[in-house]
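Below is how a single chain appears once it has passed through the pipeline. First comes the sequence as given, then the structure the pipeline wrote out for it. We keep one example in the README because the format questions we get most often are answered faster by looking than by reading.
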Amino acid sequence: MEEEQTKQPKKKQPPTEFLKYSGMGLQMAAIMGAGVMAGHWIDGWLAFKIPIFTLVLSLFGVFLALWYFIKDFLKKK
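Resulting structure:
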């Protein structure tokens, strides 16, 4: 009976590095995908022949995703 009382409750282990960065990869893909979809929608709405907003917003999404990743990576160390 004493053994039952002295047992410590199990602490939750933090997610492994693999899980943390795979989730971050999905977030980055979502940010870039949102930029592409928004640019495509704006180009269709304005009826441009050259997909200028798709190009600009997709590049903006890439830079935003990289900034988010670098900011989070440096904060964790």
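The chain has one domain: 17-76.

See the next section for the split statistics.
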